[in-house]
Amino acid sequence: MLFQRTLARETKVGGRGIHSGKKVELTLIPANSDTGIVFVRTDLPERKEIPAHALRVSATENNTGIGEKNYVIHTIEHLLSALYALGIDNLLIEINGPEVPIMDGSAAPFIYVLKEAGLTHLSQHKKFLVVKKELEVKLQDKWAVISPCDHLIIESEVVFPHPLIKRQKMSFQFSPTNYIREISRARTFGFFKDVDMLKRKGLARGGSLDNAIVLDDFKVMNSEGLRFPNEFIRHKILDVVGDMSLLGHPLLGRMKTFRSGHLVHNQLCRKILSDPSNYEIISAISLPKTVEEDLTMLDLHPSLA
User: Fold this and answer.
1) Fewest CB within 10 A of the end CB: N or C in the chain?
2) pLDDT values of the chain reduced to their tens digit, one per residue, 305 residues
3) Please, where are the H alpha helices in 38-88?
4) In this structure, are residues 130 and 280 in contact, taking their beta carbons and an 8 Å threshold?
5) Does the structural domain 128-304 have CATH classification 3.30.230.70?
């Protein structure tokens, strides 16, 4: 049986926000069954809980942010992607600033911190969101489609007029093991020519070669180069996992994306949730055996837990 999970003990992680440039510290606190992932800004006077949910998303430009007015938390997608990968359903996240730290631009540092804290099973079974019909969101030449499937499969494609990217495609069937090995280390990326424009918009103030892949017109500027030849599309899948985790439950469906970003992903989440006939919430005890095997790989590989 697949039970809900939280951390075995409280842990902390600190760093700098890639857009705000501000130093910030997270405190990750174990939570009870059916709590979900909940953020709290500890640097503001009122203690408001902000659930990590698609309907609470308020920012999608170059990051995913949740909340409203001053009580907003930006760039949550990499942390959420890591939590989803490790099957962590319930967590209270106290944060003393406006943005989750970018770390090295991937989910791998969060995976490390979470594994060090350890995982523990709770008394309630997981609940899965099962897609019941094909749904599509399209914004100009960007789109995302999701259709029924007994697994979570993500097929993504990016297109950039850069000699190192051009057109990259990847199909990824989710399991914790697959995610950690194939997706978690892929870093966010950007173009040197866009830096000034982004900073004028209040973005990328904390960006550097230590927390992002930066490309000039011809090459990668980072001295260590790429971690994968197709690191760009792998990071896109990392973002998709984080953004779709905002549905509030592990997802079963086949998702295809083309040049999509945080706005398209959030609109697809909202479209799924807009009509109860689009989906079904089922208990883990009702999962097909093959799905259970995919999602319990962490239990079979203690080194990954």
Assistant:
1) N
2) 589 999 999 999 999 999 999 999 999 999 999 999 999 999 999 999 999 999 999 999 999 999 998 899 999 999 999 999 999 999 999 999 999 999 999 999 999 999 999 999 999 999 999 999 999 999 999 999 999 999 999 999 999 999 999 999 999 999 999 999 999 999 999 999 998 998 888 888 999 999 999 999 999 999 999 999 999 999 999 999 999 999 999 999 999 999 999 999 999 999 999 999 999 999 998 887 766 666 655 444 444 44
3) 77-85
4) yes
5) no
The yes-or-no answer on residue 74 being catalytic is no
Estimate the crossing angle of helix 77-85 against helix 108-117, to 10 degrees.
50
Query: Where do the structural domains in the chain lie, given as residue ranges?
Result: 3-125, 128-304
**Cα 148 to Cα 156: distance, rounded to the nearest angstrom:** 17
CATH fold group of domain 3-125: Ribosomal Protein S5; domain 2 (3.30.230)
Catalytic pick among 19, 78, 235, 262: 262
> Burial code of 61-76, b = ≥16 C-beta within 10 A, e = fewer?
ebbbbbbeeebbbbbb
C-alpha span between 68 and 287 (Å, rounded):
36
The reply to whether 128-304 shares the fold of 3-125 is no
CA distance 194 to 171: 29
